[in-house]
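User: My collaborator sent over this chain with a note saying "see what the structure looks like." That's all I know about it. Can you take a look?
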Amino acid sequence: MALFQVMSRLPATQLDVIALRILWRMPTERVSELLGLSPAMVRSSQRHGEHFLRSILYPPETDEGATP
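Assistant: Without extra context I'll predict from the sequence alone. Here is the result:
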């Protein structure tokens, strides 16, 4: 699945934070000012957004076919 397709599934705040922090490389404080969020909320939104993206783009390996 393409990165931007997966990103479109993020909640709006997480999408904004990921775009500004990762794609535009803005510091947390600047993103906080732009979005009207506390720096802690920016960090939390980034962490949750990154976790969601990883879970879709890199799903955990299954043990199917493994021998006991």
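A starting point for your reply to your collaborator: The mean pLDDT is 92.
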